[in-house]
Design goal:
The complex is a heterodimer of chains A (332) and B (306). Chain A is an alpha/beta fold and 332 residues long. Helix content of chain A is 33%, strand content 24%. Chain A has an 8-stranded mixed sheet, with helices on both faces. In chain B, α6 packs across α8. Classes of the chains: A alpha/beta (332), B mainly alpha (306). At the A-B interface, α2 and α4 of A face α9 and α10 of B.
Chain lengths: 332, 306
């Protein structure tokens, strides 16, 4: 982590709202994140906590309206939210690229794999058709797709899910991005394929010297891949920590609950050793609870949790928690 | 592919026999006597009987049908009861006119309908979208004969820019094809709008945008290409319908097409011409559908007929 050079991406006070017929949904509500050069930041949380919306907000891929994005997204010193349409298009697929969750639907079914990769190259790298195609075949080889030359002329439906995700990775990395937003890249894949894809991503990240924001709800993947983790709940950050510290000493009751709900092979299910679960469900985004948003499900809730939002407590460098338990400890 | 085409072409035979069967017996259920119509008001009973015998109408219906099928197998559609010309000649004289009208109308409809639908889908719920959708609703609900008459009143009678009817120069084509296109353009615009709305919200469209592609490339290359299948279906079906002859439009504009031939023949109880014209229309309709199916495979690589 070369922090001396400053963060590659700094998100300050990101607020992404959706104006719907039922009301305003605050999908992301005041998020602060930094991503450094060469690191993999894990963004963890349950479905609907705003992690995907965060990634889509960075590239401004949400249709506005109904979405509304506020705050600052500084990438290499430029606020992406200030760029005009052409400006953000130059960033998309060039300096920042994205991998999506569903390889089955993320590739265009009526265009060949090669066309979909080489059009990105032609857009950003000023390449001729022939050069782009050659580079595309190289990329397919790099992501270990067998027979890349013939595969490049095939349509997505001829490829398996794992192969398609490899092609997506090839596409995302083709223009040497500085930052890769990977939105649940392995969720839709078989477990064995998951491992292959994660190993591939880890290797290519080193090769391309890219930073990754890895969005997932799978803590196993986080443990393998990420150096730092941000845990999100209901549109807010609840905890940030280097990955080892998070697993060793989670501070927020939500993080503790997440870690407790991971099944461990060999653990006996006798008294007190049962697999923990977090009771209740994620709050309705139209009716967020007052105070801390986790309070209806928190096992250690206090009166103040129902009244006031907890402040963000900085425990150390890159160690932040948003919880009254920690805030009170500080005051004592 | 070739095998598929041959198979499809062979399958038209039973379809055409089905059409001929329905057509033949339904025609004979029509009230009115063709011999009487041909002979005229003043004819004697003997005259009528003689004409009936000449036309073979004095035989049982099923015998008539078998004879008809036998001739059909030799590609002989018979002769018109009215003009005594071979039916094929009668139809052949009208078919190019109908093809011309249908071709121009469908081209106009695509030229305006598809872009209108795209604009509407790209800017949904804006004044532009409301303009397109309400115009389309107007186009779909407007009776063809009324629109035709209005166009004649405005462009032929008042402005005197275009001829009110008949066939001749390119000017004669404009009003009838616009009248025909009005309904089709609305239909195509609505279909394009709804399928484009769907493809624009698909994951692959987001992927295309995430690559930094120009919005026009995202819309045309990524979204429209995926939306083409339903649009082509509608265009094909509508074109098939237009080939059958737009009876009302051809009547309003005195356009000597297939539609008017069929109507005139029905009024005259000219069985051979009705049968021949409708069978040829059926054949064309089947062919258009086959072509549409072949275009599917060209547009969507997932569709293969091997």
């Amino acid at each position: 982590m070369s922090e001396q050079s400053g963060p590659l991406l700094t998100i300050r006070g990101l607020r992404t709202r959706f104006h719907t017929y039922e009301g305003v949904v605050n999908a992301v509500d005041g998020l602060d994140i930094e991503v450094f050069r060469g690191e993999t930041l894990g963004l963890v949380g349950e479905s609907g906590c705003g992690k995907s919306v965060t990634a889509l907000s960075i590239l401004r891929l949400l249709p506005c309206p109904p979405a509304e994005i506020q705050g600052q997204i500084l990438f290499d010193g430029t606020n992406l939210l200030d760029l005009d349409r052409e400006g953000i298009r130059n960033i998309r697929g060039g300096d920042i690229s994205m991998i999506f969750q569903e390889p089955m639907t993320s590739l265009n079914p009526v265009l060949t794999i090669g066309e979909q990769i080489s059009e990105t190259l032609r857009r950003h790298k000023d390449m001729t058709r022939r050069e782009a195609w050659r580079r595309c075949v190289e990329m397919l080889q790099l992501v270990q797709i067998p027979g890349p030359k013939s595969r490049s002329r095939e349509y997505p439906h001829k490829l398996s899910g794992g192969m398609r995700q490899r092609a997506m990775i090839a596409m995302a990395l083709s223009c040497n991005p500085k930052l890769l937003l990977a939105d649940e890249p392995t969720t839709a894949l078989d477990v064995t394929i998951q491992a292959q894809i994660m190993t591939l991503m880890a290797r290519l990240k080193e090769e391309f010297e890219a930073s990754i924001v890895l969005i997932t709800h799978d803590l196993g993947i986080i443990a393998e891949m990420a150096s730092r983790v941000v845990v999100m709940y209901a549109g807010k950050m609840v905890e940030e920590a280097p990955v080892k510290e998070l697993f060793k000493d989670p501070r927020h009751p939500y993080t503790q609950g997440l870690l407790g709900s991971i099944p461990v092979i060999g653990r006996k299910f006798d008294g007190g050793q049962r697999l923990q679960e977090i009771p209740g469900i994620v709050p309705n985004p139209l009716e967020m609870p007052l105070g801390c948003r986790f309070n209806p499900r928190c096992p250690r809730t206090m009166p103040i949790c129902h009244q006031q939002e907890p402040p963000v407590v900085r425990l150390a460098d890159h160690r932040r928690v948003s919880c009254w338990l920690e805030a009170n400890k500080r005051d004592d | 592919m070739l095998q598929y085409v041959i198979k499809r072409l062979l399958s038209t035979v039973p379809v055409l026999i089905g059409i001929s069967l329905l057509l033949f017996f339904m025609l004979r259920m029509l009230p009115g006597d063709p011999a009487q119509v041909l002979a005229g008001q003043m004819a004697t009973q003997e005259d009528i009987e003689r004409i009936r015998h000449q036309l073979g109408l004095d035989r049982p219906v099923y015998v008539q049908y078998v004879l008809f099928l036998g001739r059909l197998a030799k590609f002989d559609l018979g002769r018109s009861a009215r003009t005594q010309n071979p039916v094929i000649q009668e139809v052949w004289a009208r078919l190019p006119n109908t093809m011309l009208l249908a071709g121009v109308a469908i081209t106009l409809a695509c030229l305006f309908g598809i872009p209108a639908g795209i604009i509407s889908a790209v800017r949904p719920y804006t004044w532009l979208d409301y303009l397109v959708t309400s115009t389309a609703l107007f186009g779909i609900s407007m009776p063809v004969f009324w629109l035709g008459l209005m166009l004649v009143v405005i462009f032929s009678v008042m402005l005197q820019w275009l001829p009110a009817g008949g066939m001749g120069s390119w000017k004669h084509v404009i009003l009838p094809s616009v009248t025909l296109a009005a309904f089709v353009v609305a239909f195509i615009a609505r279909m394009t709008r709804s399928t484009m709305m769907e493809t624009l919200s698909q994951d692959y469209t987001t992927t295309a945008r995430s690559k930094g592609l120009q919005e026009s490339v995202v819309i045309i290359k990524h979204a429209l290409k995926n939306a083409l299948i339903p649009i082509i279906t509608v265009v094909g079906l509508q074109f098939g319908m237009l080939l059958g002859g737009a009876v009302l439009t051809e009547t309003v504009f005195a356009w000597p097409g297939l539609g008017r031939l069929i109507v005139d023949s029905i009024l005259a109880r000219d069985y051979p011409v009705i049968q021949g014209a409708i069978l040829i229309f059926g054949l064309l309709y089947i062919l258009v559908n086959l072509i549409v199916d072949l275009i599917y495979a060209w547009v969507d690589p997932r569709i293969r007929y091997d």
